[in-house]
Design brief:
four-stranded antiparallel beta sheet; binds zinc ion; alpha/beta; single chain; eight-stranded mixed beta sheet; 449 residues
Length: 449
């Protein structure tokens, strides 16, 4: 039914992409994706593990052991990449003092995030895209800051990914800004992410997407036989956590409970990630996080930002949050030898393709509306050009209401379109597209007034 409609009624609108036709890759992004190196990330993880413990409450002054030394090394790494950037990449520590909270912080302690910023080249474009990971590690006892807690995969994998992307993208010149955010205090209750997210609110940052990478470099699950190096999970909330009663009523009125901006970001990541990375499927999980568990994207979604969690297909619980030991011949602990760096390479590349495509794209189209007058057997959409960015045209996305992913992608250079699809029976969205084919995040239409 769907295909027939398209073939008969749609000849006037060129079909640029669909599930049957792969969109062209941007050669610049393709080049960056090919530069992602498993060896480079292995070296990073090895170095992170060498700090013994990166517990949030471990030493901040010891030159070799503890989270302070690990943060200083990470900062220096970003600063070394900054040399290729012509002054666009800068990095600093964002530090503050933790107060005892009676839960996972038992004494006053210095905490810091490492924040590296690749400044956008368009002064009119204030968008910021963030890749985040946590540098802190833990063992079985959440308060034990002295025992070895290598944190190779949780979350050395995420830190290595952010550093690898900074290494490659430091020479790139994108209109929008990318932030490589290495937070502390994830295991002590998402402290660093909460701090940064609140700063983003206070400073009115135009944060358009947060990709939180946590535990994404091991392809072997806890159970024998669950080895999967071709699938990566992206978690996204459905109904937005942050909403007023009025916003919630609007979502209900148009049935947009699976069309919040975080869900759109997840779909975007799947489409763009799979466009650039071979032999990898991005599996969307339609819930905010793993069952009854949390992560650093949550402080962001709770404040109204679009933020997803990226995690390997099968977590291995023998190698997570354990003390290093052997029991009945089985090894426990989050050690580097249990990771799969070729899998991590692909997962990092999905992040890179997504961030680069977002930062090269124009801003999202404005005032996207769907006409509510006239026959409901068609859909008339109109919108305005984005605030910033060079637009070559727009993609109009279509899917049946019960489908998880966009099914059709139509191209137009106009700012309105009449589609022979009932506005009652389909969902729609519009993306702005650059001359190199980089598309913005999609915007769903609101009813015209
Ligand atoms: Zn973690």
């Amino acid at each position: 039914m769907f295909k027939r409609l398209l073939a008969t009624a749609f000849l006037a609108v060129p079909l640029v992409g669909s599930s049957q036709q792969i969109l062209n890759r941007d050669p610049e992004i393709d080049r960056y994706v090919k530069a992602v190196s498993a060896d480079s990330m292995r070296a990073t993880v090895e170095k992170l593990v060498s700090f013994g413990s990166r517990h949030t409450l471990s030493s901040v002054s010891d030159p070799q052991r503890g989270i302070g030394a690990a943060r200083r090394w990470t900062l220096a790494k970003f600063q070394s990449y900054a040399k290729n950037s012509g002054g666009r990449l800068t990095a600093q520590l964002q530090s503050w003092t933790l107060k005892p909270d009676g839960r996972r912080v038992d004494k006053e302690h210095e905490i810091a995030n490492v924040v590296a910023t690749l400044k956008g080249s368009d002064p009119k474009d204030d968008r910021v895209f963030v890749i985040s990971a946590h540098i802190d590690s833990r063992a079985l006892d959440i308060m034990n800051r002295d025992i070895d807690s290598p944190g190779a995969n949780d979350d050395g994998s995420g830190v290595a990914t952010a550093l690898e992307l900074a290494r490659i993208l430091s020479a790139a010149k994108f209109p929008a800004t990318i932030v490589f955010l290495i937070v502390s205090g994830e295991e002590q209750s998402l402290l660093g992410a909460e701090y940064y997210a609140q700063q983003a609110v206070d400073k009115k940052m135009h944060l358009e997407a947060i990709l939180n990478n946590d535990t994404m470099g091991s392809s072997a699950g806890s159970d024998i036989g669950t080895i999967d190096n071709t699938r990566l999970r992206v978690f996204s909330e459905g109904l937005p956590a942050y909403q007023t009663a009025e916003q919630a009523a609007k979502i209900r009125a148009i049935g947009a409970e699976s069309d919040g901006k975080t869900r759109q970001l997840a779909r975007y990541m799947k489409e763009v990630g799979e466009r650039y990375v071979e032999n990898l499927e991005v599996v969307l999980i339609f819930r905010n996080d793993r069952f009854q568990r949390g992560g650093d994207h949550t402080p962001f979604v709770n404040k109204g930002f679009a933020a997803v969690r990226i995690t390997e297909m099968n977590e291995n619980f023998d190698h997570q949050h354990h003390d290093i030991h052997t029991e009945n011949g089985k090894e426990y602990g989050d050690l580097q030898k249990f990771m799969d760096f070729e899998y991590l390479r692909k997962n990092a590349a999905v992040n890179l393709a997504t961030l680069a495509n977002l930062a090269k794209a124009p801003q999202m189209p404005q005032d996207v509306q769907i006409e509510v007058r006239g026959s409901a057997s068609y859909a008339k959409l109109n919108w305005k050009a984005p605030k910033a960015g060079k637009v070559k045209g727009y993609y109009v996305l279509i899917r049946e209401t019960y489908q998880p992913f966009w099914q059709k992608k139509l191209y137009t250079t106009e700012t309105s379109i009449t589609l022979p699809y009932s506005r009652d029976s389909y969902f729609f969205a519009v993306q702005a597209v650059s001359e190199h084919g980089n598309e913005s995040l999609p915007v769903i239409p609101l009813p015209s007034r």
